[in-house]
Write a structure and sequence with these properties.
By secondary structure, the protein is of the alpha+beta class. Strand 12 and strand 13 form a beta hairpin. The protein is globular and about 70 Å long. The structure holds iron/sulfur cluster. Iron/sulfur cluster binds next to helix 18.
Length: 484
């Protein structure tokens, strides 16, 4: 038997789907209140948040009396044309880009979801994942609710519609007190928009302005595109209601220890965003500096794996005093729909995305910097590619701790058994990816770079889940149930 098969049962069969051995982004939300071109601004905002979800996009606007909706499958530029943007009239609008973390990827699951209930018309966009959605859905169905989608977000709408309170804001609070997990939500009604962040603040949300208009956005980078101004972050547990009466802020939920997702700093958020009180670019570079201090190596050059390793590599090079070279050229035009043309030329997925620059690598000792190893299959191919380009030694450095557990709070991770670090030591992973050395940043190093561990969720590195995971959710993603 192939010794690799003996050592890593299962991993050799995990092909990387055209280099798709990555964590996937989650969702992004964007809203504007009080602008004559509200839908156009949301369209631009969604473009800036496209990295958070590419499977579907949608915008709901209010013409002051009714909600108008346009959504479709694919990226923002594909879904919205001049024609459907013109239909989205009104001075208020919200939008959503989606990568499916719960519910299948289909138009029925594309957000924002809009309903007309006894509380009036309302639409919702959600970034995050509810851990008790299955149980709530079963209870609601037993009481006669009929669901149109398989998304956890629709549960919130049903809970709002069934809430005893006639007042919509009170009904939203009543509904959200029943859900558990991660949510940064944006709502629109004919006369207001509302932003809410769950009490632990897993996912980011910022408040901004564009002239006299108010803006809500998953990430501050989207404000730059509309010439907006960053005002502040929406706080964990805060509900912001923006209407003709101005902006009101409420704290309707019991306080809970903050659990902001540290992986937003490692990978998800754009480096030009300000997230959880810090510049993503600065934190990412600080991860690289810490990594250089913790995992030094005798080498000639630091090479980032684009795009995710670039900022950590800058920090590593700065701290180690080694030169930084862009040793890969990335092809930005490979979509998720790529079809391998022939069986005989299969398995070249990573090569489609990355090509090594032989002249920069040949004969040199290379420190490769990436932000994570998921299954290990892609890292293995990249190391082989660098050796194939003539590198003398290949040392892999990872700008976060080993990923040992899946995420239940809105990040699409493979199951526990697919995560190579959940069942293999660093030395075993090194042998699998065939690097000369392998080093991860420690959890302590991550915390130092991100301004202290307090306030962050680090569950995928520690298996300590800040919101208990129901057994059924744990079984679905192949993890043992947690309870605390
Ligand atoms: Fe972020 Fe990991 Fe926590 Fe999920 S489990 S919220 S990816 S830190």
């Amino acid at each position: 038997m192939n010794p690799l098969k003996q050592m890593f049962p299962g991993h050799d069969s995990l092909q990387d789907r055209a280099g798709d051995d990555r964590f996937h982004d989650e969702c992004g939300v964007f809203g504007v209140f009080g602008h004559p071109e509200a839908a156009n601004l949301v369209y631009l905002g969604l473009h800036a948040l496209q990295h958070r979800g590419q499977e579907s996009a949608g915008i709901v606007s209010s013409n002051g009396e009714r909600l108008l909706e346009e959504k479709g499958m694919g990226q923002v530029g594909r879904v919205f044309k001049r024609r459907n943007l013109l239909r989205l009239k009104g001075r208020h609008a919200i939008g959503h880009v989606r990568y499916s973390t719960a519910g299948k990827s289909a138009l029925l699951n594309a957000q924002p979801f809009r309903i007309d209930s006894c509380k009036g018309e309302i639409a919702i966009g959600h970034n995050g994942n509810l851990v008790n959605a299955d149980q709530l859905r079963r209870e609601l169905e037993a009481q006669g609710s009929i669901f149109r989608s398989s998304s956890d977000t629709e549960v919130i709408l049903h809970l709002i519609a069934k809430a005893p309170q006639a007042d919509l804001e009170a009904a939203i609070v009543h509904a959200l007190k029943q859900v558990q997990g991660a949510y940064s939500l944006i709502f629109i009604t004919p006369d207001r928009i509302i932003g809410v962040r769950d009490p632990r603040g897993f996912r980011p949300m910022a408040l901004g302005s564009a002239g006299t208009a108010h803006v809500l956005t998953s990430e501050s980078c989207a404000l730059d595109l509309i010439d907006g101004t960053f005002v502040r972050e929406v706080e964990p547990g805060e509900m912001v209601v923006i209407s003709g009466q101005g902006l009101k802020s409420y704290r309707p939920f019991p306080a809970a220890p903050s659990a902001q997702c540290i992986f937003e700093h490692v990978y998800f958020s754009r480096p030009d965003s300000f997230v959880f009180g810090r510049s993503v670019h600065e934190v990412r570079k600080a991860f690289g500096r810490e990594l250089a201090r913790e995992q030094p190596v005798e080498a000639d050059v630091v090479v980032p794996i684009p795009d995710s390793g670039v900022y950590a590599a800058l920090g590593y090079a700065e701290e180690s005093k080694l030169p930084l070279e862009f040793g890969f050229v990335r092809n930005h035009y490979i979509g998720r729909t790529f079809i391998e043309p022939r069986q005989s030329i299969r398995h070249f997925g990573v090569k489609l995305k990355l090509n090594p620059v032989r002249r920069l690598l040949e004969g040199r000792r290379i420190v490769l910097i990436d932000d994570s190893i998921v299954r290990g299959t892609t890292s293995r191919k990249i190391v082989a590619m660098v050796r194939g380009a003539g590198a003398r030694e290949v040392h892999m450095r990872i700008s976060c701790a080993p990923t040992i557990g899946p995420c239940y709070y809105g990040v699409d991770t493979p199951s526990r058994k697919e995560l190579i670090a959940s069942s293999h030591s660093v030395e075993e992973i090194r042998r699998f990816i065939e690097a000369d050395s392998l080093g991860y940043l420690s959890l302590e190093g991550m915390a130092r770079a991100a301004g202290g561990a307090k306030g962050y969720c680090t569950a995928c590195y520690t298996n300590e889940y800040p919101v208990p995971i129901p057994e059924e959710a744990a079984v679905r993603v192949g993890a043992p149930p947690q309870s605390r």
